[in-house]
Structure formats: structure tokens, C-alpha cells
Design a protein that fits this description.
heterodimer; A: about 280 residues; mainly alpha; MetI-like fold; B: about 290 residues; two-stranded antiparallel sheet; about 75% helix; globular
Chain lengths: ~280, ~290
């Protein structure tokens, strides 16, 4: 039985919820809006909320001055590469833990989780040193590996919780019908696992895209992704609000759109399956 | 049911992930432990090739004894605690609000969640410049509009400003998880309480809040782990000055700015121990869930 709600109460709730929602969203809205202003309009007092001369100039300036596209490309490669490798390593592990569990499975899962909690700053110097030794500093491959490793626990955990939901009976039935392990994985398991794998990849891509400790500390001009690109705006020269906004908008737009598709997976992924 | 064959296959499939994570954990951890017992100042001629002097626990005592240690612990506690209080309280209220029927639920939910997807460097810089700039920021405009003197947020109210920025980033996470938990609440229980004459406040404290307690614990533990290591938000705003030097940032400065690897490593070991204490609690909860 659904609870009866009076129209008056619904109108009130709507008003309050929208006000709060818009207030929380305002900084993002303001950033996007400012990116279409001239620098003078960007700092106008009173602030201009809609009526100003819309311009795309900032976007071309940002690209010309700092080669935005290269940073964007680095972000795509780093987030994409670490996600793909992470899933390639994580799927077999999660599969075996979900379908051939042993006494130690739980301990291994919890241990993996514990590696995620290692504070990055505690191992900053060793990792930098190893990067220098192996010539990985400011390379994409080095950072792909680091991003993959810091997110691997989340990948394994998420996949594990998804795989756990696949009914084992179906696998047994396939086995009865004479399916080999390979066939079992390929024709029975994969179709059922694809949605879970896709959600895992989506969330992991977002996390890798936004990672801002290793990407700031292990990159320079070469492999720097958008997080580093934006950080270079922290010591500004002259008027720059509109340009900062344009750069920011370009850095967050793709992930905002992806993020909206991943709300549910976010809960599962970041609570390690403890809240679904 | 699992055969010997499938067991060894399973072990093989698990191997890459386990080996990679084991290496990722053990190698740097061992190095940090090693350096923490050494005098290692690369700028003053110490180098790995020539060997480092063993100094015992000197780095550990010096790290704690330094005048910046306790202030950094204090900043850490205030920032982490402040963000936790704000995000959990507002998160519970927002989750209850978003659970009510109203028009445009989907859109509002998207608006509320959005900040979580903004990369830390962007949110920190947008807040720092476009909102908290004492001359041109939105807040300065607002203050002047009401005839007040604009505040230099990041120098005069630096800790509060960092708390505000980080809370804005993490409120969506708390809200989303608490909303998910609230939606699993049995509505019949609420209705029964309503019929028995329990007022909204009583229903909140005796039904909703107990139901949320597990989710709240999880939110607190997970956020604590992430908040203890916030970095970009401080890096691009105050750079650790004006009382915003957290433990993480202090270690970062010891390693990167003053190039005192031994001292920084000792600090790193402290940070690792601290994180592990919290991790134990989180793992207990998550582990319980695994049996179910």
C-alpha cells in the first residue's frame, strides 16, 4: 500500500527538494556558465546570470595556450587503459572466488580491500624511486599500472558481488550437459556477467579519471592528465576566471555524463558490496 | 562440487590479481619501513649507492617531536571530523527528503549527486577562485550586496573553507548510500507506527535512524579512509598554510619539499598504522556481510 500524500505536501516537498538540489549543483552550473563569458563579464558585480554576450572564445584560447587536447587524450588513455587491464586481471580472480570458493576466499577478499586503504603518501617516495629506476616517471604506462593497482581491489570486489548473484544451478546444468570449463565461461557465464562487468568498468573509469594524488605527483609535461592540467591553473596570471571555467568544464563534462549513468554502481562499488 | 581440476584452475585465475597486489603492497611498504630507520637526505649528499646511516627510531621520535606534528594532527582531526559531521547529518536529511514523493525526483537526484564526479582539482580551484576569492568571488559579491566586508576565506577561515569544499564533494556520496539504505526500509513498519500515533520525530528516531545505523557506520568508515588522504584540495588551495597542513600534507612536504626521506617515511609509517586501525573496523563490518 503506497502512502497517501496530499498534493499540498507534495508541492512543498518539490519546492524544498529543487531548491536544495539547485543550490548543491550551483558551483557546477556557475562554472559552465562562466566559461561562456568574457573575462570582464566573469567578474562583473553584480554577477551575470544569463544576459551577457555568450562567447566560445575561452575554449579556443585554452586549447591554443595549453594544448588541452593532449591532456584530454592522456586522461582517456590512463583511465581507459587502467580500466581495461584491471578488468582483465580482475575478472578471472572474481570469477574463481565467486564460483570456486575456498576457505581462504573471504580472507583474500578482505586482504585485497586492505591494500586499498594503504595511504598513498606513505609510499610516495618508494614509488617515485621505482619510477625513476625503471624510467617510468611521466610515462603513461607507469601511471596506467599505478591507477590499475589502486583500483584493482574495487574491481575485484564489485565483480565478485555481481558474480555472486549469478545462480550456480545454471552452471551445474551446463556442466551436466557436458559443457567444458571454457564453454561454461564463454556461453553461460559471460552473457550473464556482461552488465556487471560494464558497470564495474564505468565506475572504475570515473575513479581513475578523477584520481589526483599519483597523477599530480608522478607526471609532468608528457603524461599529465586533466587533473594535472587543471592544477596548473592554481597560480594564475591576469584575468582567468572564464578560462579556468572553460578548462574545468571540458575536464568534468565527460565524467559528469558517465557518472549519471553509474549512480547505482557507485553505491555498490564504493561500499564494497556492503550496501546495495 | 568443485573438482580438483577446477580448484587448481581457480587458483591460477586468482594468481595475477593476488601477485600484483601483493607486490604493490609489499615492495613500497618494505622500502618505506627501510627508509624510516635511515638518515636519508638526498640534497645533502646521502645516496643509496654509498649506503645510508642507520639511525634507529630517531626519525620516528623526530617526526612526533617536531613543532608541526601536533598541529597537523589537530588539522587532520578537525577537517575529517568536520566533513564527517556535515556530510552525515545533511546526508541523512537529504536522503529522507529525496525519498519523499515529489515532482522531478530523478532530475533532483542527478543535481545532488553531480559534485561527486567533479575531479578534486577542479572543485578546489572553482571554489577557491570563483566562490572564495575575496574580490571577485561570488561570496564576496554576496557579502557586499548585504553591506558586509568580504571575507578572505582561504586565509582567514582556511580550515572552514577546506571543510566546506570537501563536504560539497562528499555529501553526494553520503546521500546516495543513505538513500539506498532508506529505500530498503519497510514502509509498512512506518505506517504501523503512524497509525499507533507516533509523530514524525519519534518515527525518525525510533525507526528510520536505527535502520540507517549500519549504512551510517559504513559511510563514516569509508569517508574517513578517503578523507585522511585528501591531497589535491589542499595542494591547489592553501598549499598547507593557514593551519590546513594535515598529516598527509605534512608527510608530503617532508618528502617532496624538504627532501627528508627518512623523516617522511617515518611519518608515512604512522599514517599507515592510523589508516589500518580504521580499516580494521570497516573490514569487520564488510566481512560480516560476506557470510550472508
Amino acid at each position: 500500500m503506497a502512502r497517501a500524500v496530499t498534493t499540498r505536501r507534495k508541492i512543498l516537498t518539490t519546492a524544498v527538494a529543487w531548491t536544495i538540489g539547485l543550490l548543491i549543483f550551483f558551483p557546477i552550473y556557475w562554472t559552465i556558465l562562466t566559461s561562456f563569458k568574457s573575462e570582464a563579464q566573469a567578474i562583473n558585480d553584480p554577477p551575470l546570470f544569463f544576459f551577457f554576450d555568450w562567447t566560445l572564445e575561452n575554449y579556443s584560447v585554452v586549447q591554443d595556450r595549453s594544448d588541452y587536447m593532449r591532456f584530454l587524450w592522456n586522461s582517456v588513455i590512463l583511465a581507459g587503459g587502467s580500466t581495461i587491464i584491471g578488468v582483465l586481471v580482475g575478472v578471472p580472480a572474481a570469477w574463481s572466488m565467486a564460483f570456486v570458493p575456498s576457505k581462504r576466499t573471504k580472507d583474500i577478499l578482505l586482504w585485497m580491500l586492505s591494500t586499498k586503504m594503504l595511504p598513498a603518501v606513505g609510499v610516495l617516495y618508494p614509488i617515485s624511486l621505482l619510477f625513476v629506476q625503471f624510467g617510468l616517471l611521466d610515462t603513461r604506462i607507469g601511471l596506467i599500472m599505478v591507477l590499475m593497482l589502486i583500483n584493482l581491489p574495487i574491481i575485484v570486489w564489485m565483480l565478485y558481488t555481481y558474480f555472486k548473484e549469478i545462480p550456480v544451478d545454471i552452471l551445474e546444468a551446463a556442466r551436466m550437459d557436458g559443457a567444458s570449463l571454457r564453454q561454461e565461461i564463454l556461453f553461460v557465464l559471460t552473457p550473464m556477467a556482461v552488465p556487471g562487468i560494464a558497470s564495474t568498468m564505468l565506475l572504475n573509469f570515473i575513479l581513475a579519471w578523477n584520481e589526483a594524488f599519483w597523477t599530480l605527483n608522478l607526471t609532468a609535461a608528457n603524461a599529465g592528465p586533466l587533473t594535472a592540467f587543471i592544477a596548473s591553473y592554481s597560480s594564475p596570471e591576469g584575468l582567468f576566471f572564464a578560462k579556468l571555467s572553460a578548462a574545468s568544464t571540458m575536464a568534468i563534462a565527460p565524467i559528469l555524463i558517465l557518472g549519471w549513468f553509474s549512480q547505482k554502481q557507485l553505491v555498490r562499488g564504493l561500499t564494497f558490496g556492503a550496501v546495495k | 562440487m568443485a573438482t580438483q581440476h577446477s580448484r587448481s584452475a581457480a587458483r591460477l585465475m586468482m594468481a595475477p590479481a593476488v601477485i600484483l597486489l601483493l607486490g604493490w603492497m609489499l615492495v613500497p611498504l618494505t622500502m618505506t619501513l627501510f627508509f624510516s630507520f635511515k638518515k636519508y637526505l638526498p640534497m645533502r649528499g646521502d645516496s643509496l649507492e654509498r649506503g645510508l646511516d642507520w639511525v634507529g627510531f630517531a626519525n620516528y621520535t623526530r617526526f612526533i617531536g617536531s613543532s608541526s606534528f601536533w598541529p597537523s594532527v589537530q588539522s587532520t582531526l578537525i577537517i575529517v571530523g568536520g566533513v564527517l559531521v556535515i556530510t552525515v547529518i545533511l546526508g541523512v536529511l537529504l536522503a529522507i527528503l529525496l525519498d519523499q514523493p515529489f515532482w522531478g525526483q530523478g532530475v533532483v537526484r542527478i543535481l545532488v549527486i553531480a559534485p561527486f564526479f567533479v575531479m578534486p582539482t577542479v572543485s578546489a580551484l572553482v571554489w577557491k577562485n570563483m566562490f572564495m576569492d575575496p574580490v571577485n568571488g561570488i561570496l564576496a559579491h554576496l557579502w557586499r550586496f548585504f553591506g558586509a566586508e568580504p571575507v578572505s576565506w582561504l586565509s582567514d577561515a582556511s580550515v572552514q573553507s577546506i571543510i566546506l569544499i570537501v563536504s560539497w564533494q562528499w555529501l553526494p556520496f553520503a546521500t546516495l548510500i543513505l538513500l539506498t539504505a532508506i529505500q530498503s526500509l519497510d514502509s509498512e513498519q512506518l505506517e504501523a507506527a503512524e497509525m499507533d500515533g507516533a509523530n514524525p520525530l519519534a518515527r525518525f528516531f525510533f525507526i528510520v535512524l536505527p535502520h540507517l545505523s549500519r549504512a551510517i557506520t559504513i559511510v563514516i568508515l569509508i569517508q574517513t579512509i578517503f578523507l585522511l588522504s585528501i591531497f589535491a584540495e589542499i595542494f591547489v588551495t592553501t598549499g598547507g598554510s593557514f593551519g590546513t597542513r594535515t598529516l598527509t600534507y605534512l608527510i608530503f612536504q617532508r618528502v617532496v619539499d624538504s627532501q627528508n626521506i627518512g623523516l617522511g617515511s617515518a611519518g608515512g609509517v604512522y599514517a599507515i598504522i592510523l589508516a589500518n586501525i580504521i580499516a580494521i573496523f570497516l573490514m569487520r563490518i564488510v566481512g560480516k556481510n560476506l557470510d550472508a
